[in-house]
Amino acid sequence: MIIKKSPAEIERMAAAGAILVKTMNLLAAKIRPGVSTHELDQAAERFIRSQGAEPAFKGYRGFPGSICTSPNSMIVHGIPGPYKLARGDILSVDVGVVLEGWVADGARTFPVGPVTPIAHRLLARTEEALHIAVGQCRAGNRLGDVSHAIQKHVEAAGLAIVRTLVGHGIGRSMHEDPQIPNYGRPGSGPWLEEGMVLAVEPMVTAGRHAVRVGEDHWAIYSQDGSLAAHFEFTIAITGAGPRILTPWHEAGNGRAAA
Ligand code: MG
Predict the structure, then answer these.
(1) 27, 97, 248, 257: which has the fewest Cβ within 10 Å?
(2) 222 CA to middle of ligand 1, Å?
(3) In a domain, 109, yes or no
(4) pLDDT tens, 122-134?
(5) Residues 6+ apart with CB under 8 A from 174
């Protein structure tokens, strides 16, 4: 069952999203060669708590970090730790914020200094796919329209959509119905309606789509070792169209050219 939110509830989710945006911008300023993912985690947790909010991932099914930090071929769910970023890495950062019981979820893959042309294309294309998906989050469309738009843009560039990981509805719980695959047929799936809030999150590799789980039972990697990117917005479907509740791109940090 998809739980719809009132305009007042969407405002409360937007307040959680605003803290998420500030957290992401703070991390963007810290990401550079030599910084450990543990340092990023600590900075994020300190900031989120200073805002009267909580990191949504901390303790979620026993997850030990406040954010997920997933470098290079790691797609998602990386536990922050001693790993130090190196020049030329890419780092996917996933942040969840709970404010007064309402959750916002967002992710972004950062280049660490100059990166290879393949990495650059992977990041740009994945972020573009997310923005194209936002445009499909309208009442009267169907969920398959969102999924298909992502798949089309990613696969046209010769990149692969990760199939075993999906986006999700979001609200008082981080994961609500519906599941949102990043591939699918247009005109299929549930109808989108005003008041739905969706965490749309393309996960893309520069190789093949198969994944493997790491030894810590959390980290998920591309099976072939290819680079992976992850971009995510929490998006509300409103009477005025799609509204991004975690709009870090408006701060001018790293929005890919269309
Ligand atoms: Mg998510």
Answers:
(1) 257
(2) 18
(3) yes
(4) 999 999 999 999 9
(5) 56, 60, 96, 103, 105, 168
Domains: count for the chain: 1
* Residue 105, domain CATH: 3.90.230.10
Q: How far is the CA of 140 from the centre of ligand 1 (A)?
A: 23
- Tell me the pTM: 0.96
Q: Distance from the CA of 41 to the center of ligand 1, in angstroms?
A: 17
- Ligand 1 centroid to residue 175 C-alpha, Å: 7
Q: From the CA of 106, how far away is ligand 1's center (Å)?
A: 7
Compute, in angstroms, the gap from residue 166 CA to the centroid of ligand 1: 8
**What confidence tens digit (pLDDT) does each residue in 33-85 have?**
999 999 999 999 999 999 999 999 999 999 999 999 999 999 999 999 999 99
Helix (H, G, I), strand (E, B) or coil at 68: strand
Residue 31 and residue 18: Cα distance in Å, rounded? 20
Domain that holds residue 150: 7-244
Q: Is residue 1 in some structural domain?
A: no
Residue 102 · residue 9 · CB < 8 Å = yes
Residue 52 is assigned to a structural domain of this protein: yes
Ligand 1 centroid to Cα of residue 168, in Å, is 6
